[in-house]
Amino acid sequence: MTNALEIRNLHVAVEGKEILKGVNLTIKQGEIHALMGPNGTGKSTLAYALMGHPGYEVTEGEVFFKGQNLVELAPDERSRLGIFLAFQYPVAIPGVSLANFLRTAINARRKAENPEDKGIPIPEFRKLLKEKMDLLEMPHQFAGRYLNDGFSGGEKKRAEILQLAALEPEIAILDETDSGLDIDALRIVAEGVNALAGPKLGVLVITHYQRILRYIKPRFVHIMMDGRIVESGGPELAEHLEEQGYDWLREKQNGLVPEG
Ligand code: ADP
Ligand code: MG
To answer: Pocket residues for ligand 1 (CB within 6 Å)?
Structure first.
């Protein structure tokens, strides 16, 4: 069965101010979608609302996944259901190694599925971690470092992708995973996503820039402006943006340019 994340008429307020004004978007397992748009239009707000951040209040609308309305679930319940969010600004946890963090996360999920579960056996975990790190071309000692503590921008993003690989979610939301990366790091992250993409994973790549889309090829591209998706299309839409910027869309929104 193919699962789909269905966002329907989502309105979200931050500190009492409406930021998202009716977002509709469906992402199926196996599909790669890109969400683009100028800064401050609500892209991160959508990501946080989907994950259930308490500062982002859903005032209207639903988000369906596997027959449940995510809006009614706690963040950890959403995660266990198979939703993953890679943060734009990952937090550091000094004292907790990346490996330990991943094992704890995997065990939390196993325990949720079966309360009797004793946790993933260490040899099995080591094997899994090695497999995923090899897939992402990461040096193995990376797993021994404290989570995000003193990581470069590129290392933080790679750590997020490793979490994605280890948790094997069905829908992954990557918020500006490309920001602050030099071209080599960008390529590594993009190749990681491509290596993980497949019939079981749906991806929403949120990005301000077109450049990551040279490496990750989305089948669908959506543009958000002022809290709504104002345009959807294929990869050609991202190319059009690269050439034209967002101004033509603003003008279209304001009715200054005739349709067609
Ligand atoms: P984008 O990711 O598209 O750049 P954001 O979702 O971060 O946009 O922001 C959308 C709007 O919501 C902005 O006007 C921003 O100032 C506001 N906003 C987002 N998060 C917060 C927050 N935690 N507190 C106050 N305002 C916020
Ligand atoms: Mg953002």
So the answer is: 14-15, 19, 37, 39-45, 55
Number of domains comprising the chain: 1
Decide if 140 is inside a domain: yes
For 30: left if phi > 0, alpha if psi spans -120 to 50, otherwise beta; the answer is: left
Among all bound ligands, the one having the nearest atom to the CA of 179 is 2
pLDDT tens digits, one per residue of 125-151? 999 999 999 988 888 998 999 888 888
Q: What is the pLDDT of residues 11-24, one digit of tens each?
A: 999 999 999 999 99
Q: Is 259 a member of any domain?
A: no
If one counts every other C-beta atom within 10 angstroms of the C-beta of residue 49, the result is 27
Measured in Å, residue 200 CA sits from the centre of ligand 2 at: 26
Domain CATH for 164:
3.40.50.300
> Which domain range does residue 171 map to?
4-253
pTM: 0.89
Q: Do the domain assignments include residue 260?
A: no
Looking at the domain assignment, is residue 258 inside a domain? no
E strand spans, 1-92: 4-14, 17-28, 32-36, 56-65, 68-69, 83-86
Ligand found nearest the CA of 23: 1
What span, in angstroms and rounded, lies between the C-alpha atoms of 10 and 69? 12
